[in-house]
Write a structure and sequence with these properties.
six-stranded antiparallel beta sheet; Pept_U32_collagenase; U32 family peptidase; 4 domains; alpha/beta; 656 residues; RibuloseP-bd_barrel; Thrombin, subunit H; globular; 23% helix; disordered N terminus; eight-stranded parallel beta barrel; TIM Barrel
């Protein structure tokens, strides 16, 4: 079943095919996963046979598989990327998620194209352009507000709008961060980010005074749009994307199950909307996003700018409140649990804040209850007590790994079934079984039978229902089962089982035959103009076909990507909607109206210092954006073998 504007798609991540299979089982309408290469996640690639295995499972439910081919590519890599695109297409994949426009200029298979978040889609004009250039799905920037999302959706006539609803947040506009490459030679645009945004920094003002000490001021809390799903549907979002291609199986099961339940509740309320795939998911646990890795939650800018979007104290997962330390000795400590907290387990991971507010972690080696109610516990940690800095009486503890929860998610934790109506009917030569699934696909199988009335009518009818209803190893479950015979017949169970199996096989084949390839959108001809006529290094153009793409669409000045090493001086290494001044209550706009302050607070630059690394923060207050400014290291210029590209011998003056 192909997605349309009336369908809501839950799009889940997968690091591996096995995780992707469980994402489907837990309710995903589509899964995005890396192929053998070029997938923007350095250690999340998958072989073609694993993609085939995932596709086979997903397509049984009408779920789709999207392959991430979303790095920027050098000219010498395009042939390998083209070959990979054909391999995943022949393996049955449904779409490619693409950042590099050069891919649109080469011999790709007729597979649907989706515009990656790395395309930095912030405006209705950019979204409309990508639709007109042949993209069927575009992902709106995570920084947009509801009115901006609505305006983008209204600008699209055929493409579907996708939006991230959960997971880690890049502080930069996606595709607009070059710090990793400048400092280490590891390019975020090529799937190898060093995550400078998660480091602690000294923040200095223009006079060199410390404004913040060792704070992770570029580290965001994690995205959670659970409360905004209805508003996002109303704004025009049709694909709801969970971040996390590095995340483990338990995370994907838990978060996919959580949003499956929330979207199903919306679908129940709104008969004009439907799922983008088939079947009903039953979970054998209660999803809880707070139990999976997170840095605290924020809805970011969807409902307007907020002060508490940062995870400034730590980029780690602190976990859920657990209790407090009662007594400490040389071998361990006593712990009193908060009311309603589940018992401790051997192997649980705990955290607390030391006196410098740094997060400290420990692992429970042996947990022993000290009272009948299970409120007081003796904990012997894996670590020595000398290693556990500032652990003392009264310290609050949290738990960021609960072994009982992990064991629950290691088991079978969901099943997904497609509703099926079965009708057993008499024919002149014997019996026939007709199956009709919830999507209207049907199968019909006959078998010859020497019709003998059953000696025990009730027992014969019960036996027939039992044999026909044995669908446990299939993707189906019986919704209605009708026995359309003039009187109960004697039918051996083995014959009914064989009849059912043959009919189910036929129905599965009919479902697969009826599942169309997602259509590749045709670019508008003649080519529509790109919204701008000049592109700087920020456009990430790293090969000649990409340059030709933009030239065909009317762009006159095209600079090479930052990775080409044409920008040796100070430039914006990150552009972000997050504002350190705002988060530290130093924004001039915040000061307006405050007596004695108005006019005295200016958006002067700040400096970030981490060891020898120094970055400058500049503030563009009109669009309310922050630029993190720096330059590429000489060592990176010398070490990187990536072929530099120069599209112009000398840059035209109009480029500046």
């Amino acid at each position: 079943m192909s997605a349309s504007p009336k369908h809501l798609e839950l799009l889940a991540p997968a690091k591996t095919a096995d995780i992707g299979i469980e994402a489907v089982n837990h309710g995903a309408d589509a899964v995005y996963i890396g192929g053998p290469g070029f997938g923007a996640r350095h250690n999340a690639s998958n072989e073609i046979q694993d993609i085939e295995r995932l596709v086979r499972h997903a397509h049984r439910y009408g779920s789709r598989i999207f392959i991430t081919l979303n790095t920027i590519l050098r000219d010498d890599e395009l042939e390998d990327a083209r070959r990979m695109a054909w391999q995943v297409y022949e393996a049955g994949a449904d779409a490619l998620i693409v950042q590099d426009m050069g891919l649109t200029q080469i011999d790709l298979p007729p597979i649907q194209l989706h515009a990656s978040t790395q395309c930095d889609i912030r405006t209705p004009e950019k979204a409309r352009f990508l639709q007109d250039a042949g993209f069927s799905q575009v992902v709106a920037a995570r920084e947009l507000t509801l009115p901006q999302i609505r305006a983008m959706a209204e600008a699209l006539s055929s493409a579907q709008l996708e939006f991230f609803i959960h997971g880690a947040l890049c502080v930069a506009y996606s595709g607009q961060c070059f710090i990793s490459h400048a400092h280490t030679g590891r390019s975020a645009n090529r799937g190898d980010c060093s995550q400078a945004c998660r480091l602690p920094y000294e923040v200095l003002d223009a006079q060199g005074r410390i404004v913040a000490h060792q704070k992770h001021v570029l580290s965001m809390k994690d995205n959670d749009q659970s409360a905004n799903l209805r508003a996002l549907v109303d704004a025009g979002v049709r694909s709801f994307k969970i971040e996390g291609r590095y995340k483990d199986m338990g995370y994907v099961k838990n978060i996919t199950g959580h949003y499956r339940q929330l979207l199903d509740a919306i679908l129940e309320e709104r008969p004009g909307l439907a799922r983008a795939s088939s079947g009903r998911t039953r979970l054998f646990f209660t999803p809880d996003p707070d139990r999976s890795f997170n840095r605290g939650s924020t809805d970011y800018f969807v409902t307007g700018r907020k002060e508490d979007i940062g995870a400034f104290d730590t980029p780690k997962h602190a976990g859920l409140p657990l209790g407090w330390v009662g007594k400490v000795d040389g071998e361990g400590f006593e712990l009193e649990l908060d009311e309603g907290v589940s018992p401790l387990n051997n192997g649980d991971a705990l955290t607390y804040l030391d006196l410098q507010k740094e997060l400290v972690g420990l692992r429970v080696n042996v947990a022993t209850p000290l009272d009948a109610k299970g409120r007081r516990w003796r904990v012997e940690p894996n670590e020595t007590m000398e290693q556990l800095k500032d652990l003392r009486r009264g310290v609050a503890l949290s738990r960021n790994r609960d072994m009982a929860w992990d064991r629950l998610l290691e088991k079978k934790s969901a099943e997904r079934r497609i509703a099926l109506d079965l009708s057993l009917m008499e024919t002149p030569e014997g019996l026939a079984l007709q199956l009709t699934d919830e999507d209207g696909h049907a199968a019909y199988v006959e078998m010859p039978l020497d019709k003998q009335p059953a000696q025990q009518a009730e027992r014969a009818e019960a036996s027939a229902r039992e044999a026909l209803g044995k669908l446990g190893t299939t993707v189906f479950e019986a919704r209605e089962l009708s026995l359309l015979w003039s009187h109960p017949l004697f039918v051996p169970a083995s014959q009914l089982n064989a009849l059912r199996r043959e009919a189910v096989e036929q129905l599965e084949a009919a479902r697969l035959a009826a599942l169309p390839r997602l259509p590749r959108a045709r670019p508008v001809e003649p080519p529509v103009p790109y919204p701008e006529d000049t592109l700087s290094y920020l456009a990430n153009v790293f090969n000649h076909p990409a340059r030709d793409f933009y030239a065909r669409h009317g762009v006159r000045v095209i600079e090479a990507a930052y990775e080409s090493h044409e920008e040796h001086g100070e430039v914006s290494l990150m552009i972000t909607k997050h504002c350190v001044r705002y988060s530290l209550s130093l924004c001039p706009k915040q000061a307006k109206g405050v007596t004695g302050v108005q006019g005295t607070v200016r958006a002067e630059p700040l400096q970030l210092v981490n060891g020898k690394e120094k970055l400058t923060l500049r503030f563009d207050c009109k669009p309310c954006e922050m630029h993190v400014v720096g330059k590429i290291k000489k060592s990176v210029l010398q070490q990187l073998p990536a072929a530099p590209i120069q599209f112009y011998r000398a840059r035209p003056k109009t480029a500046h």
